[in-house]
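quick q for whoever's on today - can somebody do inverse folding on this one?? i tried earlier but teh output was garbage lol. tokens:
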């Protein structure tokens, strides 16, 4: 996000409560003669000032107004802490499962654009919002990417199958090829054979669309930002009737293969951190997800 100050305060509307000053993380606003005034030369453009102002006196002009979704009614009113039904929120989170059986049904492009917009409501390091979204909106595009990713892994598997290359990699590349061989070679080989023999989409599971979430490499935390946006997309997809699945194999291939990057028009200054397969689910569950028990550490003795 550009740090240029785009905060505008209407002096006639301001009632001098000072709340914008209290919430601004960048010191962009100060109180002068009982009114909020933009005095800073730097802004995170986070919009806290606009959201907190009781007099609608503040606008951050670099932000997109209004926030609009084609698929759901948008309520701009802020939800106070503790006023949401946590049980329902957790139910949504636990009901989202990685979907690997999709119907042969296209997704309306407006729905995909809504998902992107919902993704951008996530936090980002220094509010950089430097994530990027590349949408493959139809099955044909998904298959085109699938074929390229398969090509990448076919080549990788050919190399990994050679003991001499694995030995070289052990000496010069921290055993990365050997590690790949031990962990993924067999599964990938089986997937590729199924793809070639039966045309089974073992990569994207027959998804109708894919959203690639990336970020500019120069941002402070591009991977974290992209993954937070991705989780928003996964949850929103479920609520909108769509199944989703993160596809790590596609991410690995895209970031290593410049030919695929060129095909997808991903600039060299960007990396892709998530590939989200989407479609109408052809599967239903009876129960929400259970997870492994997780140990919680209290290293400084704060356990009560
Ligand atoms: C970073 C990441 C990469 C993943 N890559 C794949 C993948 O390539 N193919 C796949 O079928 N599932 C993939 N998954 C889905 C996981 O297998 C799945 O999240 C996990 O088994 C838990 O199941 P759940 O998502 O249904 O709760 C990936 C998940 C994550 C978070
Ligand atoms: S929050 Fe709004 S009303 Fe209060 S000082 Fe800032 S601009 Fe003025």
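ok took a stab at it. sequence:
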């Amino acid at each position: 996000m550009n740090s240029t100050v785009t905060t505008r305060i209407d002096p006639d509307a301001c009632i001098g409560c000072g709340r914008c000053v209290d919430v601004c993380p960048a010191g962009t606003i100060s109180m002068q003669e009982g009114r909020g005034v933009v005095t800073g030369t730097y802004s995170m453009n986070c919009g806290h000032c606009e959201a907190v102002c009781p007099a609608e006196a503040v606008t951050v002009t670099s932000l997109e107004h209004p926030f609009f979704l084609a698929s759901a009614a948008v309520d701009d009113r802020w939800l106070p802490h503790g006023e949401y039904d946590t049980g329902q929120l957790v139910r949504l989170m636990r009901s989202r499962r990685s979907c690997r059986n999709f119907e042969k049904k296209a997704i309306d492009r407006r729905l995909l654009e809504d998902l992107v917009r919902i993704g951008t409501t996530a936090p980002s390091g220094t509010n950089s919002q430097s994530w990027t979204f590349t949408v493959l909106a139809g099955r044909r595009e998904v298959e085109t990417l699938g074929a390229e990713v398969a090509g990448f892994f076919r080549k990788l598997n050919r190399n990994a199958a050679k003991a001499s290359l694995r030995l070289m990699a052990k000496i010069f590349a921290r055993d990365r090829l050997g590690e790949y061989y031990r962990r993924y070679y067999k599964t990938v080989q089986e997937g590729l054979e199924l793809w070639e023999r039966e045309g089974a989409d073992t990569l994207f599971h027959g998804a109708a669309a894919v959203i690639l979430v990336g970020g500019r490499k120069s941002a402070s935390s591009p991977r974290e930002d992209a993954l937070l946006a991705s989780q928003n997309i996964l949850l929103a997809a479920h609520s909108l009737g769509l199944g989703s699945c993160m596809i790590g194999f596609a991410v690995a291939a895209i970031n290593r293969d410049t030919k695929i990057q060129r095909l997808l028009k991903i600039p060299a200054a960007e990396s892709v951190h998530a590939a989200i397969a989407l479609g109408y689910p052809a599967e239903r569950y009876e129960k929400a997800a259970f997870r492994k028990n997780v140990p919680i550490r209290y290293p400084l003795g704060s356990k009560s």
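fwiw The CA atoms of residues 121 and 229 lie 7 Å apart. also Strands lie at 7-9, 29-32, 35-38, 58-60, 131-136, 209-216, 243-246, 270-279. so keep that in mind when u check it
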